[in-house]
Description:
Layout (H helix, E strand, L loop, with lengths): L1 E6 L20 H21 L4 E6 L17 E3 L18 E7 L17 E6 L2 E2 L2 H11 L4 E7 H10 L4 E10 L2 E4 L2 H17 L14 E6 L2 H7 L5 E3 L5 E5 L3 H15 L6
Parallel strand pairs: 1-2, 1-4, 2-3, 4-7, 7-8
Antiparallel strand pairs: 5-6, 5-10, 8-9, 10-12, 11-12
Amino acid sequence: MKLYMSVDMEGITGIIDATMVDSSKHNYSRGREIMTAEANHVITSAFENGCQEVIVNDSHSKMNNLLIEKLHPEAQLITGDVKPFSMVQGLDDSFSGAVFVGYHTRGSSKGVLSHTMTFGARRMFINDLEVGELGFNAYVAGYYGVPVLMVAGDDETAKEAEALIPGVTTAVVKEYISRTAAKSLTPQKSGELLREKTKKAIENRDSVKPLIPPERPLLQIEFANYGQAEWAHLMPGTKLQAESTIVQFQANTILEAYQAMLVMTELAMNATFS
């Protein structure tokens, strides 16, 4: 069995604010250590429960957070930026399943450090379904026929995952109090939980179906202000919805929609407030 693993940072045990996820802040080095240890718990359990290959994709910010020198020696790491498919780089139909670790809820939802890609994106839709990073990434996995077997993060993230993916295993490592506060397990206890949940997810893999994306999906992104929408609308093929900050893109496939989303959100970050 070959397992794909996307590791974000905001949903990791004990991580609750920007000081732990921003490389310029004083707690970032602690966040990296905890993130790497958490990834290792999942990797170790995966190998112990029948996986022959585990590919790990660092999926936070500049995507160079995981400490490769401390990663499980049998795992392979996709690291760095720019990646054509960002959080799902390297995912294809050769994998038996995927797991999302350290994930968070979508923007405009409650949850620890909730957002969707950038803080300029308020809401994001594929056709009429609102998605965050979790949902969009699961759709890409589904395009390749790969089921998302497990999602680890806070309790609100677990609810989002369970609503999208019937039968998915969820690992709740912390409980939401506010966007920057949580009741968290200790790293030791979350490690035990993650090993147990990874084992369960692999054992239950045949009961989870891939999240199949729609054909010719319509991507819609609602931005926080009009300047961001104007920047995103510079991408050819987009449409700025009248009297709103919603930018639309009619894609041929979910892969095209995903890359359009990356370009639109990057462009939007050029907007300033002065």
